[in-house]
Amino acid sequence: MPNASAHGGKVLTSVLLGTFTVSLNNSALNLAVAELMVVFDADATDVSWVVTLFMITMGMTMPLTGYLADRFGRKRIYLLGLWGFLASSALGAMAQSLAGIILARGLQGVAAGLMIPLSLSLIFSAYPSDQRGRASGTWGFAVMIAPAIGPSVGGLLLEISHWRALFLMNMPFALLGLLCGYRYLSAEPSSRRRQFDLPGFALITLGMGAVLFSLSRAETLADLLRFQALLPLTGGLLALVFFVRVERRAQTPLLDLSLFSHRGYRLSVILACLQSIILFGCILLVPLWMQNALGFSPLTTGLVFLATALAAASCSPVAGRLIDRYPPQWCIGAGLMVTMASLLGLGTLTEATPVWMIGAWMGLRGIGLGCAYLPATTMGMKDLPEQSVAQASAMNNMARRLVSSLGIVALSIYYDMVVNAALHRGIPYTEASAAALHHAFLALAAIAVFCLPLAWRLGQAVTRQRPTPPSDATSLEPPLKIASARRLE
């Protein structure tokens, strides 16, 4: 690839601007929930749709990206998503009601669902296989640093301005991303012959939407067992089962499930799902402990999470270079070991634990996150055919969202049951919460331990898949024998 570094850097910058915009906006808007409740005189359930609808529409749109990228080209679809995110941000800034804001957030989710799965695909297309770890590490830095500074930026804007500024701040990044995208992203020939898989689209959209909706509304076992949650959850899971059966028989499936026959990709998706449970489990459990049990402010809790994000963002580029140069199982395995140590440390929290100690354990968790989370996904996709990366990324994202949602609900139900049982026995809330958190963090640490052999197998799988270029005449002998055998056949 001539001048690959210069061209790849321009493509990487173009994609970073778009994905940074999405991540920054989503994390900043979470702080506006309380203000929107006051401005529109709404309850928490209504305002929570500002966050929930974004996640649902993004999950429902992702399955389309592979088909649309093949049909119209990755550049067109990615830039269409960025245009959509820009337009929906303007719509949100001009909204006069809560319904208008929720509508804008739903459209932002659709736009993000088109952009996120194509990000790695566009980056991989600009770099050779042996440089994709470094490129994805740089991309991971931006993706992880945006949620870290998002709450700070959002809080500052809410202090000095209006909630509309949280939508307006997207526009400069989006416009710059569009300018770079039109200039640096390469146009591709489209495949006009590919047929649209309507049955598959209907089943995956219904399944993803129903499952994410029901899980987003359930915080306790009673919530999950209610008819309003149980019916869409059951229907959504059945739709996903039928989707798999339909896709296996389809001539032109919406999602190419045969990608899971690649051992490296299959293991990377399993690792990503398990690590997502750890990631979002900590996002759930640490605020419960710091704010509900100990009474710390949201600002203090946010600073603790800032330590995680900064550590992860700092380690991500280093990890990307390491997996390009050395067997990836060593970097991923080290990250999982650090993750396990941090979770065991968080499991020892007591009422007397100082805030700086919690921040130190969370920073250590960020190091493990940066070394293991994104590198596992990168290694599973870096050797796939280029035309399959968009679908592989979409399926990885969808699997992570489904599994992490199930994990969060399971942890929420467990925490609620243990705390309520302890309160009925007369145990103070702080002690009850500490006991529940202790076992929950031990369970997350056990998941990290379970990931270690998977990481080793992933490293072996991708190492075997890498072709070794011939260096002399003897290395050409096996292919020549195979070719001769085929001619004889």
Structural notes for this entry:
By secondary structure, the protein is mostly helical. It has three domains: 1-183, Up-down Bundle (Growth Hormone, Chain: A), CATH 1.20.1250.20; 198-252; 255-465, Growth Hormone, Chain: A. Helix content is 80%, strand content 0%. The protein has 20 helices and no strands. It has helices at residues 4-29, 33-39, 44-47, 49-61, 65-72, 74-94, 98-125, 132-160, 165-168, 170-184, 198-216, 221-225, 227-249, 263-293, 298-325, 328-346, 355-381, 389-424, 429-465, 477-488. Helix 1 packs antiparallel against helix 7 (98-125), helix 1 (4-29) packs parallel to helix 8 and helix 16 (328-346) packs antiparallel against helix 17. The radius of gyration is 23 Å and the shape is globular. The two termini are 36 Å apart. Residues 467-489 have low confidence and may be disordered. InterPro entries: EmrB-like (IPR004638), MFS (IPR011701), MFS_dom (IPR020846), MFS_trans_sf (IPR036259), Sugar_transporter_CS (IPR005829). It holds the Pfam family MFS_1. Belongs to the major facilitator superfamily. EmrB family.
Give a quick account of the main beta sheet: strands, pairing sense, barrel closure: none
Tally the structural domains. 3
Share of helix among residues? over 70%
- What is the CATH architecture term of the largest domain? Up-down Bundle
Averaging pLDDT over every residue, what do you get?
Answer: 83
**CATH class label of the largest domain:** Mainly Alpha
Low-confidence segments, given as residue ranges, are 467-489
Mass-distribution shape: globular
CATH homologous superfamily label of the largest domain:
MFS general substrate transporter like domains
Query: How large is the count of helical segments?
Result: 20
Tell me the distance between the termini. Answer: 36 Å
- How much strand content do the residues show? under 5%
Which fold name is given in CATH as the topology of the largest domain? Growth Hormone, Chain: A
Radius of gyration based on Cα positions: 23 Å
Number of strands: 0
What structural category arises from helix and sheet content? mainly alpha
Output the helix-strand order: HHHHHHHHHHHHHHHHHHHH
